Amino acid sequence: MTLKAGDSAPDVTAENQHGETVSPDFESPTVVYFYPRDDTPGCTVEAKQFDTELETYHDAGVTVYGVSTDDVESHEAFAEKFGLDFDLLADTDGAIADAFGVTVEDDFTERTTFVLADGEVQAVYGGVDPDGHARDVLSDMLDDDLVALN
Question: What is the pTM (predicted TM-score) of this model?
Fold first, then answer.
């Protein structure tokens, strides 16, 4: 079952596109978005828009992670191709998706976004439309006073 608002944030660790081991700190405001596959049309739109909004996310003290079942090499190529400046986590065995309760079918992760802070899930977005999603999540975080711009 997918985690819901109020649930404890899971402890997860994965390699990013640089092959570095990352263990996100969900005490701080964080967005974790799951997407199906690197370098596909919808996933590219979503990633590029999170990257476009990244400075504003950072100004609000928010860390952004993208997660799919693609491997480190695929994430590296995807990040380099589009100049993505946030961590893409390689969930090749589906362990992160499982920890969040996100469905993986035929190695494609269901498009789902989580907002986390204070060690808990604050919001969940399922059935995400990639176009405009990055701005919508940030706007909701600001509206809910979860974060404030510096």
Answer: 0.95
Structure tokens given for 126? 């399922």
Tally Cβ neighbours within 10 Å of residue 84: 20
The letter for the amino acid at 54 is: L
Which domains are present in the chain? 14-143 (3.40.30.10)
User: At residue 46, what is the residue type?
Assistant: E
Residue 25's contacts (CB-CB under 8 Å, 6 or more residues apart) are 63
E-state strands within the chain: 14-15, 21-22, 30-34, 63-68, 87-90, 104-105, 108-109, 112-117, 120-126
Instruction: Give me the average pLDDT of each 10-residue run along the chain (150 residues).
Output: 94 97 96 97 97 95 97 98 98 96 92 96 95 95 77
Query: In the annotation, is 43 catalytic?
Result: yes
Q: Which of 3, 43, 62, 147 is catalytic?
A: 43
- Strands lying side by side in the sheet with 87-90: 21-22, 14-15, 87-90, 63-68, 30-34, 112-117, 120-126
